[in-house]
Design brief:
It is globular and about 60 Å long. The longest helix has 30 residues, at 245-274. It has eleven helices and ten strands. 50% of the residues are buried. It starts with 17 loop residues before the first strand and ends in a 30-residue tail after the last helix. A five-stranded mixed β-sheet has the order 3-2-1-4-5, sandwiched between helices. The chain has a five-stranded mixed β-sheet with strand order 8-7-6-9-10, sandwiched between helices. With 360 residues, the chain is an alpha/beta fold. Helix content is 40%, strand content 18%. The protein has helices at residues 49-52, 60-82, 101-118, 127-133, 178-188, 195-203, 228-239, 245-274, 289-302, 311-314, 318-330; strands at 18-23, 28-35, 39-47, 91-97, 122-126, 146-151, 156-163, 166-172, 278-282, 305-307. The chain folds into two domains: 18-134 and 314-349, ATPase, nucleotide binding domain (Nucleotidyltransferase, domain 5, 2-Layer Sandwich), CATH 3.30.420.40; 142-308, Nucleotidyltransferase, domain 5.
C-alpha cells in the first residue's frame, strides 16, 4: 500500500539521495533528476513560448492547461534520460510558489501525488530559492556568504545570503521587475515575446549614442529598484518616433544599457555595503550577455568574484528545483499530504538548511 516508508538499502552505497524536480510556476514545464552523490543526472524543459506568443505575454489559464498536457510525459522522459526508474527516486520536489497559482497547482498536485504513490517524501520549493541556488549546479560553485542578484520576469531582488534559507533582503523592486520591463519594452517595439532575448538581439545593431535613458533610483542611496519610470520613458520615446528597424534597434540598445547599468550600480553598492567578496546572479535576465559582461568588469574593480549558472539554468528549469528540494529533503523537510501553493511568498520566510555540494 502506498504511503509508508520504503526500504532503501542501496542508498548508502554508490549513489546519493535522488530527487525528481518539477517546475511549473509560469510558462516553462521543467523536470530534472538530481543525485546527491553524482549531481545533475538529467533535466528537460518544454517551453510554452509558441502558445503565448500570439497574446504578447503569458496567459495564465493557457499556461496551466498546457502544463497538464506536458508534465507527465516530461517526467517519464527525464527519468528515462537519467536512466532511473521510479523505484530509484527517493523524493520529489516541486515549485510551490511564488508564481501563477493555476500553473503552480499542476506541478504541486502531480509532484505530491507521485511522491505519495512512490512512497517517498515530497517538498514544496520556493521558486526564487531555486534560482538563487542554481549556480551550485556548476563545476565551481560559490561558497557562502555572498550577495545574490535575482532577476526574473516577476522579481528583482538583492539578497545577502549566509547559507541556504539564510536570506536577508537588501532591496527589491517597488514596481515592475526588470524582466517585466524587458518584456513590456519588447511589446512596445513589436519584437514579440519573451522580450529579454528579443531586446538583446535587436540592441546588437543599435547606436548606443542616439538615445540616453534614465538609470532609475541610482542617484540616491539604497538598494531598492524601480523600473516603471524607465518603462514610461521608453513608451514616450517610442511614441515620439516612427519605428523603422534602426530606431527599434537604437531604442532597444538604450533601454538595455540603462537597465543593465542600473543593476550593475546596485550590485556594486550591495557589495560595498555588505563587504561580501562574491556576487551570484540568477534568474532569466541573468542570461543577458551585456549584464554578464558588465558585472564581470564591475566585480574586478571591487576585488570580488561573480558566479552565474549557465544560461539555460538562469531561465526557469527543473534542475534548480531538484537541487533546492534535495537540500531540504535531506535535512528532513517534508510537505504534508494536504499540500498548498502560494502566488506570493517572501524568501525571508524560509527555514535555514545545510548546503549539499557535489564536486566532480
Ligand atoms: O526566471 P525566468 O525564466 O522566469 C521567471 O521566473 O519569471 O525569467 C524570465 C524573464 C523574462 O522577463 C525574460 O524576458 C527574461 O527573463 N530574459 C531575459 C533574457 N532571457 C530571458 N532578459 C534579458 N536578456 C535575456 N537574454
Ligand atoms: Zn523564474
Amino acid at each position: 500500500m502506498p504511503g509508508g516508508p520504503r526500504a532503501r538499502s542501496e542508498l548508502s552505497y554508490n549513489r546519493g539521495m535522488r530527487v525528481l524536480g518539477i517546475e511549473t510556476s509560469c510558462d516553462d514545464t521543467g523536470a530534472a533528476v538530481y543525485d546527491g552523490g553524482r549531481g545533475l543526472l538529467a533535466h528537460l524543459l518544454y517551453s510554452q513560448i509558441a502558445i503565448h506568443e500570439p497574446y504578447g505575454g503569458v496567459v495564465p489559464e493557457l499556461a496551466a492547461r498546457d502544463h497538464i498536457r506536458k508534465l507527465l510525459p516530461l517526467v517519464a522522459a527525464v527519468l528515462k534520460e537519467a536512466q532511473v526508474d521510479r523505484d530509484g527516486i527517493d523524493g520529489v520536489a516541486y515549485t510551490a510558489g511564488p508564481g501563477l497559482v493555476g500553473a503552480l497547482l499542476v506541478g504541486a498536485a502531480l509532484g505530491r501525488s507521485l511522491a505519495w504513490s512512490w512512497r517517498v517524501p515530497a517538498v514544496g520549493v520556493h521558486h526564487m530559492e531555486g534560482h538563487l541556488l542554481a549556480p551550485m549546479l556548476e563545476p565551481a560553485p560559490p561558497a557562502f556568504p555572498f550577495v545574490a542578484l535575482l532577476v526574473s520576469g516577476g522579481h528583482t531582488i538583492l539578497v545577502d545570503v549566509t547559507g541556504i534559507g539564510r536570506y536577508r533582503i537588501l532591496g527589491e523592486s517597488r514596481d515592475d521587475a526588470v524582466g517585466e520591463a524587458f518584456d513590456k519594452t519588447a511589446q512596445l517595439l513589436k519584437l514579440g515575446y519573451p522580450g529579454g532575448p528579443a531586446i538583446a538581439a535587436a540592441a546588437e545593431s543599435g547606436d548606443p549614442h542616439r538615445f540616453h535613458f534614465p538609470r532609475p533610483m541610482t542617484d540616491r542611496p539604497g538598494l531598492e529598484f524601480s523600473f516603471s519610470g524607465l518603462k514610461t520613458f521608453t513608451r514616450n520615446t517610442v511614441e515620439a518616433h516612427s519605428l523603422d528597424d534602426q530606431t527599434v534597434a537604437d531604442i532597444a540598445c538604450a533601454f538595455q544599457t540603462a537597465a543593465v547599468d542600473t543593476l550593475v550600480i546596485k550590485c556594486r553598492r550591495a557589495l560595498e555595503q555588505t563587504g561580501r567578496g562574491r556576487l551570484v546572479v540568477a534568474g532569466g535576465v541573468g542570461a543577458n550577455r551585456l549584464l554578464r559582461g558588465q558585472l564581470r568588469a564591475m566585480v574586478k574593480t571591487q576585488g570580488a568574484e561573480v558566479f552565474y549558472p549557465r544560461p539555460e539554468l538562469c531561465t526557469d528549469n527543473g534542475a534548480m528545483i531538484a537541487y533546492a528540494g534535495h537540500c531540504r529533503l535531506r535535512t528532513g523537510e517534508r510537505e504534508p499530504l494536504p499540500f498548498r501553493v502560494r502566488a506570493r511568498w517572501s524568501l525571508a520566510e524560509l527555514n535555514p538548511v545545510e548546503p549539499v555540494i557535489v564536486r566532480g
